[in-house]
Design brief:
The protein contains six helices and nine strands. It is α/β, with parallel strands linked by helices.
């Protein structure tokens, strides 16, 4: 939660984390390998309320892709450098051991917009192996930034 609070405060005070930059009314995702889902959901909730447009301008992997579940489609655009990376969520228990849950994977899958869910299913679903959406396939789902 401390990380989420730091991200929120950094946005409020104009000090963006290294993977995100602000340009006028746009928030630009330049390179994110993902991380803790709760931190990303908290950040994207703030961005949703802000009304800012999200520009995906580089790798947006793992928890970063939840931007698609949180921000309205008409406020997201992609550049030719954008790449979205999806995989099944990894859960961590109190001892630090990682494990997977079909139920949690189903919840994450259901959170994505229908066109993204369809693309994920056509590419084997959410598994341990990451799958990447880019180029023409991505531009068919989200507008190119102007």
């Amino acid at each position: 939660m401390r990380c989420a609070l730091a991200l929120i405060l950094s946005l409020l005070f104009g000090l963006a984390p290294s993977w995100i930059t602000r340009a006028w009314a746009d928030v630009r995702i330049e390179a994110s390998n993902g991380g803790v889902v709760g931190d990303y959901l908290a950040l994207f909730a703030v961005l949703r309320q802000s009304g800012q447009r999200i520009v995906i301008d580089g790798p947006c992997y793992s928890a970063c892709t939840l931007v698609l579940s949180t921000i309205p489609r008409d406020r997201i655009c992609v550049t030719r450098r954008a790449v979205l990376g999806f995989h099944a969520p990894r859960l961590v228990d109190e001892a630090g051991r990682q494990y997977r849950s079909a139920q949690v994977t189903g919840l994450v899958d259901a959170a994505y917009p229908a066109p993204i869910r369809d693309w994920i299913r056509r590419h084997g679903g959410l598994t341990q192996r990451p799958i990447f959406l880019r180029g023409r396939e991505l531009a068919a789902l989200y507008p190119l930034c102007r």
